[in-house]
## 1
Amino acid sequence: MANFSLRRYDTQARFGLLLSLLAALCMAVMAVGIFQHFNRSDWTPYYGQTRKLGVLASGMLSLLLAACGFGLGLNSAGQRRNDKPTLSWLGFFLGAGVLCLTVILLIFFLKQGQPMGR
């Protein structure tokens, strides 16, 4: 069995898809944190200090993982030695989608979110 090396394009494809999937999981955790205390009448998420830190931390981790998955998918997608181009494209598009949705959710949370009254 070959050693783990990110110089190989098929390894980049697999690892990029894995990072993009982990980013999607972090984004789902962030979305639960945003919409758990959500008022539908005025479209306002309410949060405490701990929830705000959790949402921001999971959002930043999701951005980092999605950017890495996006980059690895992009780098390995068109290479001749890559015998798994489908995984490259999946990692690329999933990373791009998670990146965009995470930015949208973070901007929504920072603009519309209100601290809970005690």
Note: The radius of gyration is 17 Å.
## 2
Amino acid sequence: MKLSKKVWLIVIIVIFAVVLSILFALYFRQAGERDQLNERLDRAQTLLPGLAANKESLTDQLAQAQSSLNTSQEQFPESVESIEYDDDLFEIADDCNVVLNHVTASKPTNKTVGTVTYSVSSFTVAVAGGIYDILEFIYAIRTGDDFSLPWSAEVNGVNMNIAAGTANINLIIYGYKGG
């Protein structure tokens, strides 16, 4: 079967029309994508200065936080060792003119606050002396002025016998564990 020239011409025109419509569709789709990308680029360029300033601000905050962390870490020893604190307690007692009759320490445990881990020990200290001297001893422990080690103590409770001139003092001592 032989096709006429008219049929061949129509087939070629149809093929040409299909190819042209495909090319136009691709062109318009790519033009739409290009427009969307240009809009996104414009928005990104608009946001860039603000984000750069925000990054700089956050970098400054990070540096300040790191400095604060380093300063805080320097205030605490690497671990809580009760013998080291016993030495400090005896020295403070001697400075305050009280006698340490008994010191009991618990095994240190870890306590995490945020990203910082502390070693925590509970102490019970029995002292004897004058009432003023005992109060001075409690104050010295609470304020930490006489500590040779960078540790922090919290006076948890005091049971005083004024007539006997004795006191049992419950302490919690915090030490920085490092990290």
Note: The chain has a mean pLDDT of 81.
## 3
Amino acid sequence: MNLTQLMSALDRKTGMAMDASAKVEWINEAIQAISTERDWPWLDGLDSFNTADGTASYDNPSDWMRTRLITVAGAPAQRIDIADGDAYSVAFDDWRSYYHYALEGNDITFYPTPTAVLAVKHRYVKQEPMLDDGTDTPLMPSQYHQAIVSYAAARVMERMSDPRAQTFDSEYERWKKRMLDATARGQQPTRVRVRAGGGL
């Protein structure tokens, strides 16, 4: 569902006529809350770029929320605090021949400063976009969009001290269980099937 459809679904769920801006706020709050409950697979991001000789800092992706792994020239880089990076020598001998990185604001800073063009892969968790146009849609797959409606409806009813808040919270928990179950199934390794008599 896009934002317009989510707003209509929220109206139907609550049975209340709300100001459009209020509905947008409730829906965006629901999306952001759900997105931070865990690292959902639809929030996986990959940014690939090359370093430049003499350049240490690079921008994070615009939808970056949290870094999971950075590799430089195929080798994992180790995360450190920015203060620790500033305290180290830039000589590669002091770094045991692999890169470190620090995150500050919207920047990734590598230590030591790269002196060659190297391939970087940055695996990160995306941030759900804020919806403001009627055609905007969340990153969450459409089959789970009712979870957004249930969560938003629960918060609206909670504000109104309406007992239906508990009902909508229970609905959301059931949607979350479906999402968690689907995520777990997607992460399970494929089982090797052996036909009877097929062993040695």
Note: The CA atoms of residues 9 and 35 lie 20 Å apart.
## 4
Amino acid sequence: MPRLALVLMLCLAACAESDSGPPAGLGDMQDWRFASGKPPTHAEYAAVVAACQDGAVKSSKAGALDACLADLGLKRVP
């Protein structure tokens, strides 16, 4: 029984480590603006990126993060 508990604890620790990284795409959040011109907060940008990565939004280009962000109202600033 103690071995089973140890294995379960290690599995939970491994799962927790894989979720601790920042969402992909957070590095270039300064390049994006809402239609109003206001830059998104870290939480807003993370939520939009997560929605795109989870497949909540079906964009015309399958798998393109930029297209998905544009579909959700963010515009890239030159």
Note: The chain is about 45% helix and 10% strand.
